[in-house]
Amino acid sequence: MMNAFSWIAIFAFSALLVNTIGIFTVFKHKKLAEKTKSYLICFAAGVLISTPLIFSLPQAINKNAYAGFAALVGFLFMLFSNQVIKHKTKKNSLAFGITAIEGIGIHSFVDGAIYAITFSVSILTGFLTGIGLVLHEFAEGVITFSVLTKGGVKRKKAMFYAFLVAAVTTPVGAFLAYPLMGKLNPSLLGLLLGFVSGVLIYVSSSHLLPEGRKNGEKHSLWAFLLGVSLALVMVFIKIFN
Known about the structure:
Radius of gyration: 17 Å
Largest sheet: none
Shape: globular
Number of domains: 1
Mean pLDDT: 84
Protein backbone atom coordinates (compact mmCIF):
# COMPACT_ATOMS: atom_id res chain seq x y z
CA MET A 1 0.00 0.00 0.00
CA MET A 2 1.31 3.44 -0.89
CA ASN A 3 1.52 6.03 1.86
CA ALA A 4 -0.02 9.52 1.82
CA PHE A 5 3.16 11.19 0.55
CA SER A 6 3.30 8.87 -2.49
CA TRP A 7 -0.30 9.73 -3.41
CA ILE A 8 0.35 13.45 -2.89
CA ALA A 9 3.37 13.25 -5.21
CA ILE A 10 1.41 11.31 -7.86
CA PHE A 11 -1.48 13.78 -7.90
CA ALA A 12 0.73 16.88 -7.67
CA PHE A 13 2.80 15.81 -10.67
CA SER A 14 -0.34 14.63 -12.51
CA ALA A 15 -1.72 18.14 -12.04
CA LEU A 16 1.49 19.59 -13.46
CA LEU A 17 1.30 17.21 -16.46
CA VAL A 18 -2.39 17.87 -17.24
CA ASN A 19 -1.86 21.64 -16.91
CA THR A 20 1.08 21.43 -19.29
CA ILE A 21 -1.02 19.43 -21.78
CA GLY A 22 -3.66 22.17 -21.62
CA ILE A 23 -1.05 24.86 -22.33
CA PHE A 24 0.47 22.92 -25.23
CA THR A 25 -2.95 22.05 -26.70
CA VAL A 26 -4.14 25.66 -26.79
CA PHE A 27 -0.73 26.67 -28.20
CA LYS A 28 -1.12 24.19 -31.07
CA HIS A 29 -4.88 23.65 -31.43
CA LYS A 30 -6.90 26.50 -29.94
CA LYS A 31 -10.37 25.34 -31.11
CA LEU A 32 -9.90 21.79 -29.81
CA ALA A 33 -8.67 23.07 -26.44
CA GLU A 34 -11.61 25.45 -26.05
CA LYS A 35 -14.19 22.75 -26.85
CA THR A 36 -12.62 20.07 -24.63
CA LYS A 37 -12.17 22.54 -21.78
CA SER A 38 -15.92 22.96 -21.19
CA TYR A 39 -16.56 19.26 -20.64
CA LEU A 40 -13.56 18.75 -18.37
CA ILE A 41 -14.53 21.78 -16.28
CA CYS A 42 -18.09 20.51 -15.84
CA PHE A 43 -16.91 17.00 -14.93
CA ALA A 44 -14.43 18.44 -12.42
CA ALA A 45 -17.19 20.68 -10.98
CA GLY A 46 -19.38 17.61 -10.44
CA VAL A 47 -16.66 15.81 -8.49
CA LEU A 48 -15.61 18.87 -6.51
CA ILE A 49 -19.12 19.91 -5.42
CA SER A 50 -20.01 16.35 -4.35
CA THR A 51 -16.84 15.48 -2.44
CA PRO A 52 -17.03 18.18 0.27
CA LEU A 53 -20.80 17.93 0.70
CA ILE A 54 -21.07 14.16 1.12
CA PHE A 55 -17.63 13.21 2.40
CA SER A 56 -14.99 15.81 3.29
CA LEU A 57 -17.14 18.19 5.35
CA PRO A 58 -18.79 15.43 7.45
CA GLN A 59 -15.29 14.05 8.14
CA ALA A 60 -14.09 17.51 9.14
CA ILE A 61 -17.03 18.01 11.52
CA ASN A 62 -16.33 14.61 13.03
CA LYS A 63 -12.82 15.81 13.87
CA ASN A 64 -13.89 19.28 14.98
CA ALA A 65 -17.45 20.45 15.72
CA TYR A 66 -16.58 23.94 14.42
CA ALA A 67 -15.44 22.74 10.99
CA GLY A 68 -18.67 24.08 9.47
CA PHE A 69 -17.61 27.60 10.48
CA ALA A 70 -14.21 26.96 8.90
CA ALA A 71 -15.99 25.90 5.69
CA LEU A 72 -17.93 29.18 5.71
CA VAL A 73 -14.68 31.09 6.18
CA GLY A 74 -13.14 29.20 3.24
CA PHE A 75 -16.14 30.00 1.03
CA LEU A 76 -16.14 33.69 2.01
CA PHE A 77 -12.37 33.91 1.58
CA MET A 78 -12.67 32.75 -2.03
CA LEU A 79 -15.68 35.00 -2.64
CA PHE A 80 -13.99 38.20 -1.45
CA SER A 81 -10.57 37.41 -2.93
CA ASN A 82 -12.25 36.91 -6.31
CA GLN A 83 -14.09 40.20 -5.91
CA VAL A 84 -10.77 41.97 -5.28
CA ILE A 85 -9.27 40.41 -8.42
CA LYS A 86 -12.30 41.39 -10.52
CA HIS A 87 -12.14 44.96 -9.18
CA LYS A 88 -8.46 45.30 -10.08
CA THR A 89 -8.78 43.77 -13.53
CA LYS A 90 -11.30 46.42 -14.58
CA LYS A 91 -8.79 49.25 -14.16
CA ASN A 92 -6.42 48.67 -17.09
CA SER A 93 -4.93 45.97 -19.28
CA LEU A 94 -1.68 45.81 -17.28
CA ALA A 95 -3.63 45.30 -14.05
CA PHE A 96 -5.66 42.62 -15.79
CA GLY A 97 -2.58 40.62 -16.78
CA ILE A 98 -0.67 40.98 -13.52
CA THR A 99 -3.63 40.39 -11.21
CA ALA A 100 -5.00 37.46 -13.18
CA ILE A 101 -1.62 35.70 -13.27
CA GLU A 102 -1.07 36.43 -9.58
CA GLY A 103 -4.49 34.95 -8.81
CA ILE A 104 -3.83 31.84 -10.91
CA GLY A 105 -0.42 31.32 -9.29
CA ILE A 106 -1.86 31.54 -5.77
CA HIS A 107 -4.75 29.29 -6.77
CA SER A 108 -2.38 26.63 -8.14
CA PHE A 109 -0.21 26.81 -5.03
CA VAL A 110 -3.31 26.34 -2.85
CA ASP A 111 -4.34 23.35 -5.00
CA GLY A 112 -1.06 21.71 -4.03
CA ALA A 113 -1.67 22.43 -0.34
CA ILE A 114 -5.16 20.89 -0.69
CA TYR A 115 -3.58 17.62 -1.83
CA ALA A 116 -1.41 17.61 1.28
CA ILE A 117 -4.35 18.34 3.61
CA THR A 118 -6.85 15.89 2.10
CA PHE A 119 -4.48 12.94 1.75
CA SER A 120 -3.34 13.54 5.33
CA VAL A 121 -6.97 12.98 6.42
CA SER A 122 -7.50 9.80 4.36
CA ILE A 123 -6.55 8.31 1.01
CA LEU A 124 -10.17 8.36 -0.23
CA THR A 125 -10.65 12.03 0.73
CA GLY A 126 -7.49 12.94 -1.15
CA PHE A 127 -8.36 10.73 -4.11
CA LEU A 128 -11.85 12.17 -4.58
CA THR A 129 -10.62 15.73 -4.26
CA GLY A 130 -7.59 15.04 -6.40
CA ILE A 131 -9.55 13.70 -9.38
CA GLY A 132 -11.53 16.94 -9.69
CA LEU A 133 -8.50 19.15 -9.16
CA VAL A 134 -6.33 17.31 -11.68
CA LEU A 135 -9.02 17.42 -14.38
CA HIS A 136 -9.58 21.16 -13.98
CA GLU A 137 -5.86 21.74 -14.53
CA PHE A 138 -6.32 21.32 -18.29
CA ALA A 139 -8.69 24.28 -18.36
CA GLU A 140 -6.43 26.27 -16.05
CA GLY A 141 -3.52 25.80 -18.44
CA VAL A 142 -5.67 26.98 -21.35
CA ILE A 143 -6.90 30.01 -19.40
CA THR A 144 -3.42 31.00 -18.17
CA PHE A 145 -1.94 30.89 -21.68
CA SER A 146 -4.90 32.90 -23.03
CA VAL A 147 -4.55 35.56 -20.32
CA LEU A 148 -0.85 36.00 -21.07
CA THR A 149 -1.33 36.32 -24.82
CA LYS A 150 -4.21 38.76 -24.25
CA GLY A 151 -1.79 40.85 -22.17
CA GLY A 152 0.60 41.08 -25.13
CA VAL A 153 3.08 38.32 -24.27
CA LYS A 154 4.43 36.46 -27.31
CA ARG A 155 3.08 32.94 -27.71
CA LYS A 156 6.27 30.98 -26.95
CA LYS A 157 7.02 33.11 -23.89
CA ALA A 158 3.38 32.83 -22.80
CA MET A 159 3.66 29.04 -22.95
CA PHE A 160 6.78 29.08 -20.74
CA TYR A 161 5.38 31.59 -18.22
CA ALA A 162 2.07 29.73 -18.04
CA PHE A 163 3.98 26.55 -17.21
CA LEU A 164 5.81 28.29 -14.36
CA VAL A 165 2.78 30.09 -12.94
CA ALA A 166 0.02 27.49 -13.31
CA ALA A 167 1.77 24.10 -13.46
CA VAL A 168 4.93 24.22 -11.33
CA THR A 169 3.29 25.98 -8.39
CA THR A 170 1.02 22.99 -7.62
CA PRO A 171 3.72 20.45 -6.66
CA VAL A 172 5.60 23.25 -4.88
CA GLY A 173 2.51 23.95 -2.74
CA ALA A 174 2.02 20.23 -2.04
CA PHE A 175 5.58 19.55 -0.95
CA LEU A 176 5.82 22.68 1.19
CA ALA A 177 2.54 21.92 2.97
CA TYR A 178 3.08 18.21 3.54
CA PRO A 179 5.73 18.44 6.31
CA LEU A 180 3.37 20.64 8.33
CA MET A 181 0.55 18.10 8.27
CA GLY A 182 2.30 15.66 10.62
CA LYS A 183 2.56 18.39 13.27
CA LEU A 184 -1.17 19.06 13.41
CA ASN A 185 -3.52 17.47 15.95
CA PRO A 186 -6.79 15.94 14.60
CA SER A 187 -8.88 18.89 15.78
CA LEU A 188 -6.82 21.44 13.83
CA LEU A 189 -6.71 19.13 10.82
CA GLY A 190 -10.52 19.06 10.98
CA LEU A 191 -10.64 22.86 10.80
CA LEU A 192 -8.26 22.87 7.81
CA LEU A 193 -10.35 20.23 6.05
CA GLY A 194 -13.46 22.31 6.76
CA PHE A 195 -11.77 25.38 5.26
CA VAL A 196 -10.73 23.36 2.20
CA SER A 197 -14.31 22.07 1.84
CA GLY A 198 -15.60 25.64 1.72
CA VAL A 199 -12.97 26.55 -0.88
CA LEU A 200 -13.93 23.57 -3.06
CA ILE A 201 -17.66 24.33 -2.80
CA TYR A 202 -17.00 27.89 -3.96
CA VAL A 203 -14.63 26.90 -6.76
CA SER A 204 -16.99 24.26 -8.14
CA SER A 205 -20.30 26.13 -7.83
CA SER A 206 -19.24 29.73 -8.49
CA HIS A 207 -16.25 29.33 -10.77
CA LEU A 208 -15.99 26.01 -12.59
CA LEU A 209 -19.64 25.23 -13.33
CA PRO A 210 -20.60 28.70 -14.67
CA GLU A 211 -17.37 28.78 -16.72
CA GLY A 212 -18.02 25.32 -18.13
CA ARG A 213 -21.63 26.00 -19.11
CA LYS A 214 -21.37 29.59 -20.31
CA ASN A 215 -21.04 28.56 -23.97
CA GLY A 216 -24.07 26.26 -23.76
CA GLU A 217 -22.23 23.11 -24.80
CA LYS A 218 -24.77 20.36 -25.57
CA HIS A 219 -23.52 17.71 -23.17
CA SER A 220 -22.02 19.89 -20.42
CA LEU A 221 -24.79 19.01 -17.94
CA TRP A 222 -24.17 15.31 -18.53
CA ALA A 223 -20.46 15.83 -17.93
CA PHE A 224 -21.32 17.52 -14.61
CA LEU A 225 -23.66 14.67 -13.59
CA LEU A 226 -21.01 12.12 -14.55
CA GLY A 227 -18.64 13.83 -12.13
CA VAL A 228 -21.28 13.73 -9.39
CA SER A 229 -21.92 10.04 -10.12
CA LEU A 230 -18.24 9.16 -9.88
CA ALA A 231 -17.96 10.79 -6.45
CA LEU A 232 -21.12 9.03 -5.22
CA VAL A 233 -19.96 5.61 -6.46
CA MET A 234 -16.56 5.94 -4.78
CA VAL A 235 -18.10 7.06 -1.48
CA PHE A 236 -20.63 4.20 -1.52
CA ILE A 237 -17.85 1.71 -2.24
CA LYS A 238 -16.01 3.04 0.80
CA ILE A 239 -19.12 2.88 3.02
CA PHE A 240 -20.06 -0.71 2.11
CA ASN A 241 -16.54 -2.13 2.27
